[in-house]
Amino acid sequence: MQATEEVIIMTENVRVRQMSLNEGDATPWHYHTQVVDNIICLQGAVEVQVRDPDLQFPLTPGKRCEVLTERVHRVINVGQGQATYLLVQGIGEYDFNITSI
Fold first, then answer.
1. Which of the four CATH numbers 2.40.110.10, 3.40.190.10, 2.70.70.10, 2.60.120.10 does domain 4-94 have?
2. Taking Cα atoms as reference points, which of 53, 51, 47 lies closest to residue 23?
3. pTM of the predicted model, to two decimals?
């Protein structure tokens, strides 16, 4: 299931959104060709999972992870209850390329 979102800033080159995931939910595996993702946990516990090589970055409130362009990744709620994170993306044209692993 995809995250719900609240748009804070959206321009041609930058996006800032507050994202929420229900317990156990995850974004699809995906990558971006131009934008870097900065993921900051606000509430609950999320894990950023990346491929090639396979790594996991557990985030609790106040912790941040950066995912570079072309890196296949997803965000999953690994805690109890809803998790919320701030997603800062830029600088470049936004795209969201879903991929199978």
1. 2.60.120.10
2. 47
3. 0.92
Residue type, position 82, single letter: Q
Residues 6+ apart with CB under 8 A from 60: 41, 45
Instruction: Domain ranges for the chain, please list them.
Output: 4-94
Neighbours of 78 (CB within 10 A): 19
Q: What is the structure's pLDDT at 99?
A: 92
Both tokens of residue 98? Answer: 């879903």
Across the chain, how many H-helices and E-strands are there? 0, 10
Q: What is the pLDDT of residues 54-100, one digit of tens each?
A: 999 999 999 999 999 999 999 999 999 999 999 999 999 999 999 98
